[in-house]
Amino acid sequence: MNIFKVFENDIRKLLDELAAEGQIPAGLDTARLTVEPPREAAHGDLSTNAAMILAKPAGKPPRALAELLVAKLKTRPDVASAEIAGPGFVNLRLTTDVWRDRIRDVLTAGTAYGESTLGGKRPVNVEYVSANPTGPLHAAHGRGAVFGDALAALLEKAGYAVAREYYINDAGAQVDVLGRSTFLRYREALGEDIGEIPAGLYPGEYLKEVGQALAERDGSKWVGADEADWLPACRDFAIATIMEWIKEDLGVLGVRMDVYSSERALVKAGAVDTALKALEDRGLIYVGVLEPPKGKKPDDWEPRPQTLFKSTDFGDDVDRPLKKSDGSFTYFSNDIAYHYDKHRRGFDLQIDVWGADHGGYVKRMQAATTAITEGKASLDVKLCQLVHLMKNGEPVKMSKRAGTFVTLRDVIEEVGRDVVRFIMLTRRNDQTLDFDFAKVVEQSKDNPVFYVQYAHARCRSVLRHAATALPGADLSLAALAARANLARLDSEEEMALAKRMATWPRLVESAAEAHEPHRVAFYLYDLASDFHALWNKGRDDTSLRFLIDGDEEVTVARLALVSAVATVIASGLAVMGVEPVEEMRS
Hints:
The protein is an alpha/beta fold. Helices cover 49% and strands 12% of the residues.
């Protein structure tokens, strides 16, 4: 149960009652009405802006409307107090039974606790990673992979029908460069001295593996052949090989994709022609000369007549070219076709996860998506900033195999999948992330992955000891939900945990709506902090310990609380794609 949503709906009903009584006009727009935790915990448990946003249309001063709401809210048996704060906010304190009942909700639902119908099974396409198939994934790709995967899981928990998609950029100049680089390594594998890698080709040693594999497959078939013959063969072989590496790396990271879409297949199927014709039919394409931009000139500006898309009609800064000087399509044209294809597949809610270097591309792509779908589809682009890899504060040297970067596989092998996934979500996606190999495995409060996992491990340790102390007792979630007398939970620290767990369903919905999975990591850290505070208090005050000799009733109640904490942590870690640990090892 999302207690905040329950009160939000109930306050709307109270407003209807006030309208029926003639106290306020009927039919007020309550779309902006919210119920959320107050900024200061000392102000209460819940706060609503109802009187503030409805005062003007209701024809009453905010505090006067707040007084009417407070009078009705005070009659509820689950409200301990209702007060007006500031210019008209209403703050509520709920009875302790409300928070105890949320513990029972957790035990009843298990790790499904927090699941929501918010999304209404609406289809949403989350496209992430989508690295060019020109080399192994690097650490920054890993951040986008984890972010996109966690966002997809979060949206699923909030009730959306999610498709995870990888867009293979296998058309254009970069894959021709890959083909030529592969041909060079292929010749090297056959014994030729290739000397220094020419400028403009990919130098990474990983291509030695590709060239060797091609030589083993085809022998000397391509030696002396025309480029027109060997280039497609080398290019296609390299793309297929590297995509297999990428899929393997994603598998090691725990990322699965539902769909792999090929740019080249899209172009070959005529999707670009179809998309541009749709824009042309709506009068959104013209031939013109762009004005010279002020300041730095963008890469796609040329002082010549061009085929342009009217992207400024949809919020972009300048109209955008659709064709190059040689008449071939720009990357932008291909991307328009791709997003149109997603729309035609039923995805009007589209989320793309891109690297920070694509920031200048966002407005035009959003403009194009709006235009090509006639406003039916929306595109949210989440940019993932850089990852700085360090060890004890010093930059990590580059991977020998990759040549210019540290591979994602290197990072996973160094610290483990779960650490990588958790740490990648400890900053907002639009903030630079420092990833220190030493600190992310440190056993301290400053390491969030350890701190959260330690809380779960402590919970499991308590339950293992309880199984020994109470032989034969059924300590399953269902049994605890049915048996525990939660009225025995009355300490400040126990109530803090209950209240924190009660906010998990709200957190799921708000984070899903904002497309911000990092909020899950922040929430879990706070929940872990609350649990560790209770644990530490019990070390000094024996009456607060979880297992109390001679008082099985309070012991069972506290075991219910501990089980609930472990369950909510596991629920949150599942969204992050992280396995909860049963015990910590030094």
